[in-house]
Design brief:
The complex is a heterodimer.
Chain A: E1 4-8, H1 17-26, E2 33-38, H2 43-54, E3 57-63, E4 68-73
Parallel strand pairs in A: 1-2
Antiparallel strand pairs in A: 2-4, 3-4
Chain B: E1 3-8, H1 12-24, H2 26-31, E2 34-40, E3 44-46, E4 65-67, H3 68-71, E5 76-80, E6 83-87, E7 92-95, E8 100-102, E9 105-108, E10 112-114, H4 122-125, H5 132-144, E11 148-154, H6 163-178, E12 184-189, H7 199-212, E13 215-217, E14 222-226, E15 231-234, E16 239-241, E17 244-248, E18 251-253, H8 255-259, E19 283-285, H9 298-318, E20 329-334, E21 340-345, H10 358-375
Parallel strand pairs in B: 1-2, 1-9, 2-5, 9-19, 11-12, 11-17, 12-13
Antiparallel strand pairs in B: 3-4, 6-7, 7-8, 10-18, 14-15, 15-16, 20-21
Helix pairs in contact in B: 1-9
The chains are: A alpha+beta, B alpha/beta.
Chain lengths: 76, 379
Amino acid sequence: MAERTKIDARGAFCPGPLMELIAALKLIEVGDEVEIWSSDKGSAKDIPEWVAKVGHEMVGVENMEGYDSIVVRKAK
Amino acid sequence: MATHIVIVGGGLAGTIVANGLCRQLGEQLRSGEARITMIGNTDTHLYQPGLLYVPFGKIREAELFRNQRKVLDNRVTFNIDAATNIDVENNRVTCESGKSYDYDYVVIATGSRIRPDTVPGMEEGAHWFYDLDGARKMRESLRNFEGGKIVVNVNVPHKCPVAPLEITFMLYDYLKEKGVMDKSEITYTYPIGRLHSLEPVAHWAVPEFDKYGIKSETFFNTKEIDPAAKTITSEEGSTLPYDLLITIPPHTGSQVILDSDLGAGGWVPTDREKLLREGSTNVFVVGDTTNIPISKAGSTAHFEADTIIDNLASLISEGQWARHYDGKVFCFVETGLSTGTYVWFNYTTPPNPGPPSQMLHWFKLAYNRLYWLSARGLL
C-alpha cells in the first residue's frame, strides 16, 4: 500500500506548489505518493507538465472549492 | 516554580525570540517566575545574507560575525552544547555533553544546512556561497577566471529564494567590470518552468536576462555532476558543459530533528498560523526548521519570531493567545552590483516587486548593518 504525504500549499507564493512537490518527492520512497493542495491556478498545468518531463506518474487532479488537489506517484 | 523556556538554536530566529521574550517578560524574569535558556552550537553569530558579497570582495569577512553572547540579552542563559535529542513527549532537550534541560515551552530554531554531498559530483565539481568556506573558494575562482562557460545551478529545497537571481546579476556585473564578460557565457538553471518561484519576479527577470544575454534552462533538477568532464546533468535528461559551476545546493534540516524523529528531511510539521509543532501545545517551531510551504529566509524567521514572542509572552503572562502568523515575507533583491528592489507577500497578498533602483540597493546595504539590531530584537 503506497504511503501518501500531504502538503497544503494553498496561498504559498514562494517557493510555490511545484517546488514543494519536488522537495517532497526527494523524501519519499519509489511507489509512494504526494498529494498537494494548490490555490495557484497554474499548478494543474505546471505540475503534470513537469511530472511527464521527469518521468514520475500523475495519479490525478481534482478541482476542489478554491483549490486543486493533485496527486503524484514517485516512479524512479 | 519558574516557567522555563528553552530555545534550541542560536541563529537569527532563535536569537530574536530570546531577546524579544526578555523585553516582553521583564517582570517575570526579574521576579523569577520565568527563565530563558538558549542552547547553541557555537559562540559566533554569522550574518548569512552577507555571504552573497564575499565572492565579489564586496564585504569584509569581519563584518559577517559577532560574538553570540554579545548579541543576546544578558538575561538569557546561553549554553554552547549542541542538542542531540529533543524529547517532545517528556519535555526535555539533551545535549552532546550529556546534560539535559527540562522545559515548559521549547522553541525549535535549528535551521537548515546545505547538503552538496547528496548530489553525485557536487562537492568536487561545484562552487557555492552559502557557507564561508565555499564563498572564499568561489572568490578565488572568480579572481582567476578569464572567460568561459559559467552555469548557475539552483536546487530544491534552498533558503533565501532570491539569492540565485542576485548572484547571477552580480556575477554579470563583476565579469563586465573585470573585462571578461565578452569572453563568457552565463547559463542559469531553475527547477521549475520559469526563472523564479515568484511569478512576478520570474516575469521581471526574463527581459533582464535578455538584456544581458544571460541564457537559461528551466525544468532542470540536478541528477549528477561530472567534475572530470565538467558537465552537469538534470533528472529531466539535459546535460550542460561548464568551465565554472556555481550551485545553490539542496538543503535539509538539522541532524537533531532527524535524530529526534521530529520530521522528514529535518523539517518539523508545523501549524502555519500558530507556529506550534503539529500535535503539541508547548513546542514552537520557527524559521527554516518548519515544514510550512513558505520561503526559508531571514525575514520569514523574523516575522515568525515576532509572532512567537507575542504568543509566548501572552500565554505566560495572561494565559491566552495573542495573534496568528499571516505568512509575511519581505526580501530585498539585488539586481546587480549597484541596483536593487524588494518584494513582500503573505498568505493572502501576492508579491508585486517594484522597479529596481540605486536607492533600494543602498537600503539593502544599510540593512546589512541594521541586521544586528534585528537580531537584538530592536528592529
